[in-house]
Amino acid sequence: NGVIISAVGGEGLRRACWGAGPPCHSVCVHGCTQVVYNVGLCICLFDITKLEDAYVFPGDGASHTKVHFRYVVFHPFLDEILIGKIKGCSPEGVHVSLGFFDDILIPPESLQQPAKFDEAEQVWVWEYETEEGAHDLYMDTGEEIRFRVVDESFVDTSPTGPSSAEATSSSEELPRKEAPYTLMVRRSPRG
User: What domain of life does the UniProt record list for this protein's source (predicted)?
Assistant: First the structure.
């Protein structure tokens, strides 16, 4: 079901001497619900495989420990069929949520056809043909929807320094935030 348990990580943890919990707490809080580039969405800590020696550096009263661990990671397979809930509709397509992951888009060309966007209702409508004629089936917010994963996109969202073009620009326009991990999906024929 697109969940991988063996995503391995290693991280140097800095823990202050006062009020420090166990190392697993630091790893859990720091890494859960983060996207690891080309790996997937970290859901939770699975286990700690190794704790290395702790060091205290001059001028710093905290201990520094290298921790090796495994995470439970959400990374669906291509062609995997998932069930989510419609989060909303826009001219871009149908936005779907799994509850813990919201960056799923069904573009218009991947919906069951013929489909049209109803501007007044802000929903996509599938024009279902029967012997009695066409029926409009609305894709309302909150309804379950079955979809097939056809592609994924990882975007490196690591912070970068300002470019020379940004430094000379006087406009105060905020940069558009991109999702670090997005699934491109197609509406499954049934459901």
Answer: Eukaryota
